[in-house]
Amino acid sequence: MQRVAKNIGTKNIGIMENPFKFGTVVDSPYFTDRIEELAVVRQALNSRNHLVVISPRRFGKTSLVRKAVTESSRPFIFLNMQQVTSVEDFAAMILKGVFRIHPLERIKHLFNHFRVIPTISSNPMTDSIDISFQPTVQTDLLIEDALGLVEKVSDADCRIVVVLDEFQEVLGLEKNIDKKLRAIMQEQQNVNYVFLGSQESMMTQIFERKRSPFYHFGQLMRLEKIPRPDFFHYITSRLETITSDSDSIACSILEETDCHPYYTQQLSSVVWDRLYYKKEETIKVVTNAISQLVTAHDLDFERLWLTFNKTDRKMLQLLCKGQSPYEQRQIPTSTSFSAIKRLMQAGFVIRTDSYAVEDPIFRHWIKRRME
Ligand SMILES: Nc1ncnc2c1ncn2[C@@H]1O[C@H](COP(=O)(O)OP(=O)(O)OP(=O)(O)O)[C@@H](O)[C@H]1O
Ligand SMILES: [Mg+2]
Predict the structure, then answer these.
(1) Is the pTM of this model over 0.90?
(2) How far is the CA of 30 from the centre of ligand 1 (A)?
(3) 3-class state of residue 298 by DSSP
(4) Residues bordering ligand 2, an ion, CB closer than 5 Å
(5) Which terminus of the chain has fewer Cβ atoms in its 10 Å neighbourhood, N or C?
(6) Closest Cα to residue 31, out of 222, 217, 230?
(7) DSSP state, 134?
(8) Whole-angstrom Cα distance, residue 296 to residue 301?
(9) Which pLDDT tens digit goes with each residue over 22-45?
(10) 165 alpha carbon to ligand 2 midpoint, in Å?
(11) Alpha-carbon distance 24 to 323, whole Å?
(12) Nearest CA to 170 among 146, 142, 197?
């Protein structure tokens, strides 16, 4: 279990800062547990194997891998494939990543081997580098040369780590790009690749479907929720400076969020604000925080609700009432099955011990509408 620094949540000037963080990548002091998972990532980086990390949305994939890679002191290139718009762009981003590790001046000579010479301009004011390619070239050469450069500049004793976050997005760049990438990557000796993506996306298909070029390409790691005792300690240690009821509040928070990393931090953050700024009674604070979040997201949920068909709506309502999708008699089993599948793929329903609406705040919104 991770120890929390004593001064967490405090600032020297006397005003405390909210000690919970959600929505962005987190590191200490907002990062808890994941001891075993960090060890798995570390071991993978210290091996010749590549790593694939899959979990439902917002379970902490990016935070985990970023932390492990940064702590490893290995050179790395971290790309979010959602920001890559074309194969040219992909190659340019890889090259930019290489220049962050090795200054352009020192590896300039290696460009002699490039079949398409990129135009590289540096901006001395911002220290940034722009890379572009002529538009009509064969794109596989670009990515082959760019990834080839990573391999060349990588030291066998301190291999470069290339993290491709939201990797499923690569499929949208060009037809057969997965085949081309796999052909390049499988020949490389000095690069560790880490692929991240969410369960609802194509990730499972890319790495687990037999016919996919990336079938079993790396060690697969499925990230779970954060264990309850760790999250409990994380919350109470941050609340006990402002309330004497930290244990019971932490229990109620975790009961609502079921240890989902993002929603737990989100709800805890609102609870903390209400305790600290509003001096609210502890008995009601979690319920009030939920009401606040439901109201804040009302418009988004309303819009979202309108996008579901009638069966999906019915299914979501049943799950919110705590019913099993297959035990009820209102919807035929085959229809229930396809609705659940659809809702899971879209990330609205999650299955751990049983099926549940993923977002606890959306769950409350649905319940409120049924009253
Ligand atoms: N180890 C952790 N300890 C505490 N909170 C965490 C931890 N990891 C993640 N979180 C919480 O979950 C949120 C989402 O984390 P992160 O963005 O790393 O997840 P992700 O799985 O990459 O999400 P996405 O599917 O959106 O890419 C963080 O903002 C934080 O609130
Ligand atoms: Mg992420």
Answers:
(1) yes
(2) 10
(3) helix
(4) 62
(5) C
(6) 230
(7) -
(8) 10
(9) 999 999 999 999 999 999 999 999
(10) 7
(11) 33
(12) 197
